[in-house]
Amino acid sequence: MKLSSFVLLLVLAVSLTASSQTAPNPVPSPITVTHDASGILVHNGDETVRISVCGPGLLHIVAGPGNPESASPFMPWIVQACSPGPFDFAQTDRQATLRTSQVEVRIGLRNGLLSFHDAKGTPLLSEMDRRARVYTPDTINGEKVFNVKNRFFIGPTEGFYGLGQHQAGAFNYRGNVVELAQANTDVALPLLVSTNGYGILWNTASKSWFDNRFPTELTLSTQAANAIDYYFLYGPEFDQIIHQYRDLTGHAPLFGKWAYGFVQSKDRYRSAKELLDVAQEYRSQHVPLDFIVQDWFWWKNQGDPVYTDAYLQPYPDVPDALMKLHDEHIHAMISIWAVLDPKSETYQKMKAEGLLIPGSDDYDATNPKARDAWWEMLAGKMFAQGWDGFWLDSAEPECCNGFSDATLDTFQLSVGNGARYTNIFPLMHTGGVYEHWRATTDRKRVFILTRSAFAGQQRNATTVWSGDVTGTFSTFRKQIPAGLNFELSGMPYWTTDIAGYGWPYERDTRDPAYQELYTRWFEFGAFSPIMRTHGHRSNNTNEIFAYGPQTPTLIAYDKLRYRLLPYIYSLAWKVTRDDYTLMRPLVMDWRTNEKVRDIGDQYMFGPSILVNPVVEQGATSRELYLPPAAAWFDFWTGAKLDGDKRIVAQAPLDRIPLYVKAGSILPMGPEVEYATESPDAPLTLRIYRGANADFTLYEDEGDTYDYEKGAHSIIPMHWDDASSTLTIAARQGAYPNMPAARTFRIVVVRPESGAGPLPEPKADKELRYTGSEISAVLP
Questions:
Q1: Which of 305, 411, 442, 642 makes a 20 to 30 Å CA pair with 136?
Q2: Which of 104, 396, 497, 764 is catalytic?
Q3: Percentages helix, strand, coil for the chain, rounded to the nearest 5?
Q4: What is the pLDDT of residue 42?
Q5: What dihedral do alpha carbons 354, 359, 405, 472 form, nearest 10°?
Q6: Which one from 361, 468, 497, 558 is the annotated catalytic residue?
Q7: What is the per-residue pLDDT for 404?
Q8: If you ran DSSP here, which 8-state letter would residue 769 be given?
């Protein structure tokens, strides 16, 4: 056989093999493109590709056999419908182009491939030219579906982030495969962000995969769907991408100010008296505390609001115990689960009414009647007793003999096939609690702690913790990139069990090696969105006071957290108002700097503070990168350093390396024992010279939803570096019991002033502020 004939037969064989899949590329069928007010429609043989314009930087792409509308019919994570936006359309014999003011999509009329570009025509993302879109028929749980794949060509230096929280220690996902399926310690969130300036919201709750094993190829795939379905979000900055994501899926409410203080927990307190005794120890030693937690097994039967006898002694009136805590300005949270004991009344009623997931002991959170019943029979009754938050543990959910990996994919849910909605449970579970709480009262802000999340869950006032991780330095090291990617998935609030949960590797608080780990993790916890300790210790204690010679260091970081509350609470308001992200991997603020793309162990805490956790046992220093800036100031010494360089920072056990960016106004409060103590106390404004700076101080009552009705104030501040002038603008807004006047202590940071965690004995200038604009020239 001649070589040319062999090649011809080989090409024919490949073509026939490809045609066995639906809509391979290239396709011999004629490709036609039409457009209307919503976008464009591409017909490619039996395949339809719909590109809808939802905004200048937001496109919705659905592609599949026939004429599909979406990957699945039920999408509760999307709360903002796609409203058609303006665009231009052009077509030649080779290409059709959709163009908005920010992005353009080009459709090849010979191969049907899509490519995305910015307004200048710079390539952002392109489909591969080898079977870019694949739809493989399958039958799962008795339903005919498609396994879908979309392959893209990616550049050699592009970085990928987001996708939830995962425990492999990877920050930049280049070269990785990530499964999106809920599991304890592993959270599936389908938002991917790229340093090229775009994001992809992979619009399905089915088990999915991100695959970059081949360096220039990115494959996104899903187990059970009607179509490929995703939103393309153009920033180019990550803050802009996350803003669009939250516009689509919901905005994050503000927690009570107390939630940003210190959360004390262990596995577990065994009586109301124990809760009160721990609270009293903190107050008697004047150590800050705002929140204490009652973990599991308080119940007589799991699922009923009935306490065990052990828990009731010696305070049979639990509301009375909660009132005693409230009198000490301490809030309390209790753990309640979705899984029910078959002996419980809640289980029996739900089973009789068909409100359980068939074949499991979990209530079906996708069923609105089940969400109502779960609130009425359990959560609502607990809430009425005075609890201030709910710990919705095991929200993957964990069921079926304890397994929690893609739990729901073999079950039938109220909304449909579990294979379609594998990852949806935490969104619906937390949403039911949030909505019922909000319908019950607006006098107390919702706070939910939970172990899992899905797209849109930020609107349910949740904080996700990283799951039941072990207490080792290796595990600690992995929590930081896990948390940073969680933040880049559009979720603002995240925390960990400081120094690990315990089981199956319990630690003793008297062990010097564990004291070192706890101290290093606690230092990191002080600069997490929510600062929380929890875990099971072999000697059955987990309070700050249990860690021997490290206790003074732990107390010092607890007090530093509280001194920073004016900064933290103001940025929490920015999360709610502007879709801000408080815990910021360096790639957020230096996206185009290739030096930061793989740095997953440093981050910005707000706009000013560079945090550099120490994650190596026995280390007394660490290497770190100071990103480009006018300058950086060592928080502990006030020393000034240049940016865009690597340094070795000293890090004795009582010190986490912290640097403050030049051009910062850092508000710090007095030493207090709870978040709302001394609301009219003087505030220190530390000025870090070297560039202009702005900060907006936010204040309100500290709780209730009156802030949504305008009951709050903001005080804009501006530092003009050239003239050394600080201007505090006129206050905007008001709220009940707002201080009529306050004192601002201004400190210009330098080695001899403004360094370290303690209040400065002397300010460079004091300003009496009554709400009108004032200015001061500083030395």
A1: 411
A2: 396
A3: 25, 30, 45
A4: 97
A5: 90
A6: 468
A7: 63
A8: E
CB 457 within 8 A of CB 430: yes
Q: What is the pLDDT of residues 395-446, one digit of tens each?
A: 999 876 556 678 899 999 999 999 999 999 999 999 999 999 999 999 999 9
Low-confidence ranges of the chain (pLDDT < 70): 1-28, 400-404
Cα 267 to its chain centre, rounded Å, is: 24
pLDDT at 424: 98
How far apart (Å, rounded) are the C-alpha atoms in residues 422 and 223?
10
State the Cα–Cα distance between residues 775 and 778, nearest whole angstrom.
10
393, 558, 589, 703: which one is catalytic?
393
Q: Are 156 and 594 in contact (CB under 8 A)?
A: no
What is the Cα–Cα distance from 586 to 455, expressed in whole angstroms? 23
Both tokens assigned to 9 = 């037969």
Sequence-ordered strand ranges (E) for 486-614:
494-495, 531-532, 583-585, 603-605, 609-611
Report CA Rg, the chain: 27
Q: Which residues contact 81 (CB under 8 A, 6 or more apart)?
A: none
Distance in angstroms (rounded) separating the CA atoms of residues 372 and 246: 26
Q: Is 274 a catalytic residue?
A: no
Task: Tell me the HSE value of 24 on the side-chain side, using a 13 A CA sphere.
Answer: 11
pLDDT at 401: 55
Active site residue 46: no
Determine whether 634 is an active site residue: no
pTM above 0.90, yes or no: yes
Q: Whole-angstrom Cα distance, residue 686 to residue 195?
A: 33
d(Cα 558, Cα 605) in Å, to the nearest integer?
A: 16
pLDDT at 95: 97
pLDDT in tens, 494-514: 999 999 999 889 999 999 999
Listed in order, strand segments (DSSP E) in 527-652 are 531-532, 583-585, 603-605, 609-611, 621-626, 632-634, 640-641, 645-650
d(CA 154, CA 163): 17
